[in-house]
Amino acid sequence: MKYLIITLLTLSFMPVWQKKDAFESARNRMVDDQISARGISDAATLQAMRKVPRHLFVPPEYEKEAYSDRPLPIGYDQTISQPFIVAYMTELARPSKGKIALEIGTGSGYQAAVLAEIVDTVYTIEIVPELAWESTARLNLLEYKNIITRYGDGYQGWREHAPFDIIIVTAAADHIPEPLKEQLAEDGRLVMPVGDPATIQQLVLLTKRKGRVIVTTLEPVRFVPLKRLK
Ligand code: SAH
Predict the structure, then answer these.
(1) Is the entire prediction scored with pTM above 0.85?
(2) Is-catalytic flag, 81?
């Protein structure tokens, strides 16, 4: 009986493993052609992008496009970012072992998973209840035990777990929320698209050194708007 159960369990999970293998070369090609070739060189970031099964973070109808060079719809008018943008934001945040990260805008959970391959703990907040639930289930299934998810408005950050070494905001606003600046640790790095949420924004890097905040403006990007709970 025990063996029957083990066999049945193995069989029921098999498709996930097989698909994972089937997409491995597509994933390596994505990293080589879209990410390394465009100047991302942080070894930990590249390794994480080679590992996380992106095709399991997109709706089944987009599975075949999971490793293509563009964002994809994940339902509820939201998108999973283009692979290059995920890698770029990850590298900018300088992730390493021992760090604690906060992500605003869990979406599919993909960016959280990439970070979680490198840092100790990722806290992530999602404002669309269905996406919060779906990404939590997905991350549990994939056994990301160091990702803590929450439904809510990320504008306020997550005070109980602050300060954070890394804060990544994956939705756009015309300013950096004050609570997020406050919850950034000394020597911490915050990466966020800032500008007109309806059109184009600039990716901004905010660092905190000796209590002083330094803001650097980087590439133009296009993200979905940061919403607020009424
Ligand atoms: N990081 C995601 C993609 C983000 S898309 C991924 O890897 O798949 C942006 C996400 O931010 C959407 O899911 C959107 O619902 C969410 N969002 C928008 N405003 C928010 C807010 N105030 N707090 C938390 N999440 C928010």
Answers:
(1) yes
(2) yes
